[in-house]
Amino acid sequence: MGHRILLVEDDARLSGVLAEYLGSQGYECVVARDAEEGLQQAMAKAPAAAIVDVVLPQASGIDLLTALRALHADMPVLLMTGHPELGSAIEALRLSAEDYLIKPFPPSELGERLSRALRKRHLVGEEAQADAAEDASSGLTAEGWRVLVQSVEAICNALEAKDSYTNGHSQRVARLAQLLALEMGLMGREIEAIRIAGALHDIGKIGVPEEVLNKPATLTQGEWKQIRVHPQIGFRILRPLIGQPDVLDPVRHHHERLDGRGYPDGLPADQIGIGSRIIAVADGYDGMTSARAYRPRRDSSYVAGELNRCAGTQWDVDVVEALFRAVPELTKRRTAMD
Ligand SMILES: [Fe+2]
Fold first, then answer.
1. Structural domain of 106
2. Cα 40 to ligand 1 centre (Å)
3. Near ion ligand 1, which residues have CB within 5 Å?
4. What is the pTM of this model?
């Protein structure tokens, strides 16, 4: 028999489907209907991982997560919810839930997330000691980094997986931001902070209603206001987890503009750091080159034109130049415009 997995879900139909699937994948699945029963099962015999519904009768899944953390600090816990709310997502992150699944999801998705969580936990155990010395030098412990990486994956994946148009956006922005930082001559940890900020930059969208995020038509003023708070929400979510300004600032300031007309703070150019400037360009580029519900992806001529037009007002000129160097196709288009 494979790993013992604790499944805590009060919906008997759903727990039946998931338990059957996990059984078919070789796991030994133990089902509990509420938090108390789940805790008893976990105390009787330590599971390799737990899958916990956030909304349970009496004590919630978050309460159970707290208790499980006290009992088995290293056990991966995957939370499931039909009602993604900011409060429970923040709590889940603080308590280092391994992953966060938004219902409905196919059982195979749970299978993939579970096996990834188990693999990662195994790797973290081996690498934690080796990483500890280096991470301590930055003021972040190995455990802190682990929580951080989990947070990135859990929330960003859960958010983007719901929308085929934004799927993979944060990871692409992270990679491009890293490339631009390298191209601009930044070094080691600066580049790493920008990469992490890129992966996390839109985490605050969890606080914006899905129907507003995915609206295939022009937004009303009220809806636009809701969108504009996502950098602040992201900052608030991450601040208790990460004390590093070079990660936090770009999350808050990735929609600021050099001409002071950006959001959420309307900062003047001299208060917008290099990380924020880089992520703003990487984000803008990925947005233009990805299809949206209301338009296809933009071609290179359009993108080159927009980069030229907005360099110096919205975007940093040096970062835009670094992007032209990094994507030769854009330079060709720009030359053709001259
Ligand atoms: Fe954003």
1. 1-162
2. 42
3. 202
4. 0.60
